[in-house]
Sequence to fold (430 residues):
Amino acid sequence: MDFINEIKWRGMIHQMMPGTEEKLSEGMTTAYIGIDPTADSLHIGHLVSVMMLKHFQRAGHKPIALVGGATGMIGDPSLKSQERKLLDEQTLRHNQEAIKAQLSKFLDFDSDSPNAAVLVNNYDWMKNFSFLDFIRDVGKHITVNYMMAKDSVKKRLSGDSQQGMSFTEFSYQLVQGYDFLTLFRDRNCVLQMGGSDQWGNMTTGSELVRRTLGKEVYALTFPLITKADGGKFGKTESGNVWLDPRYTSPYKFYQFWLNVSDADAEKYIKIFTELPEEEVKALVAEQAENPGARPLQKRLAKEVTTMVHSAADYEAAVEASQILFSNKAADILHKIDEATLLAVMEGVPTFDVSRAEIEDGIKLADLLVDRAGVFPSKAEMRKMTQGGGVSINKEKISDAYAPASADMLLNGKYMLVQRGKKNYFLLIAK
Fold:
């Protein structure tokens, strides 16, 4: 696989230094991408970087994932209007381990192959670097004029920013540049890849290597991912879409990809999957013929959910998404876990009810009228029940005055009540 051709058709190249393609054609090449360790999980905003490393390794090259422990303590000013909260070393180490575990799903770290992936942390070579040594050995090679010319600096120093820029942030590009110098010197890493907002920092690194060692290294950026409507990619009303199921359930993760627009689905399926070009073209053609069937979104959601979580999680998410419509909904409801159930029922009106009363066999009419207010009156509930319009956990009930029981509680805690075709209510037993 030719790496440049592969990422080119996928729309993953923004800028590339002259000579990059020729360098890669010479044989196995080492490249790195920096990853911000400010949380103990990656989110889907990181996935472009991860997929770049994945394609790079598939093409026979050696990827390095650099966790920015040192730079994470400073905060990159690129595209930021104010400084970030600084992290302590213990938090950074915890985040690093969590991130490596996630990256292991995409990259081969453990084989004996010469292009096995490597994880490094720039804190390891920065922690004992004294300030005097740094400004003598690194700072003297890059002029202030050169640093001031960077867009990330100019924007923060312009009248648009009320915050100004601290010396800490101003020095960020030198610290990142020293990463490139270190990786070139210690691991023969000749290429840095990253988002288009990193171009200024990356060229500072290549310039530092050239001025310090007289060697040429290269940089390649990918476009920052946006949504067709101009909204921020990867953000939902509840915040970031995380890779860790503790923060974003596999069901919600699956739903994010399933609900992207047609235009975004066509772009994302190239970037976030390994599907070959011909298969993507076939899916695009299928979507054009029958957009209502949404083949692009369905395949995108399947590929990414399976890759990030597992095939079992994907199947469970598909099942869960059918709860409100499927004939097998009653069986599905009794199988899914609490987090998925709550994710599916997000936005459904809820009522807190007494577990003790349910266990004691309270009449359903008393529960759903007096305790929960699902129905305005028992007469209305009785009439709708007789007409087959009332279900508990997707199973129709025939007697409004039948006793409730603990067996009706999903995950020992929840009861899903359906009134008519479209009205759902979730009872929470406490």
About this structure: The CA atoms of residues 45 and 196 lie 13 Å apart. The radius of gyration is 27 Å. Residues 172-187 form the longest helix (16 residues).
